[in-house]
Amino acid sequence: MLSKLNHKNFVNLLGYCEESEPFSRMMVFEYAPNGTLFEHLHGNCFFSKT
User: Within a domain: residue 50?
Assistant: First the structure.
């Protein structure tokens, strides 16, 4: 379903892998040169626990 989605504001899904031992799922998306969604939402603010 995600691989069929095409929109200028979304990165494309390139692949998917599922492993049984240890159980894990991975989704591979195209490279986004302008940064991550987290970076756009939070800017360059990184909070330390000190």
Answer: no
Confidence (pTM):
0.53
DSSP-assigned letter for residue 16: E
Distance CA 1, CA 13 (A): 10
Could you tell me if residue 48 is inside a domain?
no
**Tokens for 14?**
């390139």
Q: Is 47 inside any structural domain?
A: no
Closest of 50, 10, 4, 3 to residue 32, by C-alpha: 10
Give per-residue pLDDT as tens, 1-50. Answer: 666 777 787 888 889 999 988 899 999 988 888 888 888 888 866 555 55
Cα 20 from chain centre = 22
